[in-house]
Amino acid sequence: MTDALTDDVLRAGARNPELFSLVYRTYASQVLGYLTARGVEDPEAVMQEVFLAILPKLDTVSGGIPGLRTFIFSVAHARLVDDHRRQSRTPVQLSFEAEMDQREDSSAEAEALQRFSPKEVLDLLQGLPDEQREVLTLRLIGGLTVDQVAAVMGKSPGSVKQLQRRALTKLREQSAVKEYVAP
User: Do residues 40 and 83 touch, judged by C-beta distance below 8 A?
Assistant: First the structure.
């Protein structure tokens, strides 16, 4: 503790801005150490909150230097409890690491690509009317949304959805016939 901070200085300068600076220099490192040791997520920010909370109340502190120290650390403890409560309510956020993902389910797109060769896909698409083929090509290969396909083709989103539905129905029918006829 700094020799300059005494009971007399505390009583005489309760409203003095230099007193706050002296209190801060005297106790900031101790409060920071306390908050760090107790696992506060951002100890420096919480320490600043502590001193912002005690600044307007310096003139109400009683008990001299021991009373001031008790007051500072009681405020620090209250902020520590607040921080721990906030941490307990906040879910832990982990970053996604693709190489650690052990899920075995493949996407529908991956399964379809494994089931059909590129030539078979092209043959299936060739059996569709031009507009249906265009919609499926833009949606599935181009990765466009219904609204984007509608803008490209100059159609309404509803008509694009209808063309897509008809195209998929026709593809299902064609693949069902192929499987039935295949040896």
Answer: yes
